[in-house]
Predict the 3D structure of the following.
Amino acid sequence: MLLAVPGVSVHFHRMSAPGETGSLEGQDQRNRAMVASLDGAVEALAQVKPDLIVLAHTATSYTLGQRGEAELLARLHKQSGIPVVSAYGAVLAALERLGVKRVALGAPYSAATTEQGRAHLESCGYSVVRHANLQGVVNIYDTTADQAYRLARSIDVPEADAVFLSGTGMPTLPVLQMLERDLGKPALSSNAAMVWHALRRCGVREPIAGYGRLLTLE
């Protein structure tokens, strides 16, 4: 794991869905199928008795909406006895910690899914001053850090307090520090937010330098 912290172990279990993983085709249907597979995944993860389980898929929250996500996380917590949070919940916590209210949003999703992300952010009380999806994507897992950097630069506007790159399948961690230097404002991604939020929820306060200011904050 790129952001491994001494004394912290990370355990993974994949969600399952039909179709080609990472494809923009049928993403909403795959999101719903992955939600349906979560009971088994959480049951398996609970066997190692983690302090926290993170649903590491931002677009799932866009599909479910606030109420649907809250109900899902509550049910999984009750089922496993372990707190369960979402990648999107981590992003909201990160935006609050950074004092951000106006966001520029970029994603490797389809235009329709990216629009879902914009609407979801605004339903949570944030102003999305600009949003765009990465053009030419066939599979999210084929995207590069360079594409993530260029996407963030393309969506930045003076009105934005921060740029947010959605999509856990897009490599963003290597460029966050560079983006903050070049844009002069916070740059965060779903991946960075998940790591920061999970560590802080587990009582780990150690700052991690080199991946944007968020990971250096309490």
User: Anything to note?
Assistant: The longest helix spans residues 58-80. DSSP finds eight helices and six strands in the chain. The chain has two domains: 27-88+195-216, 90-193.
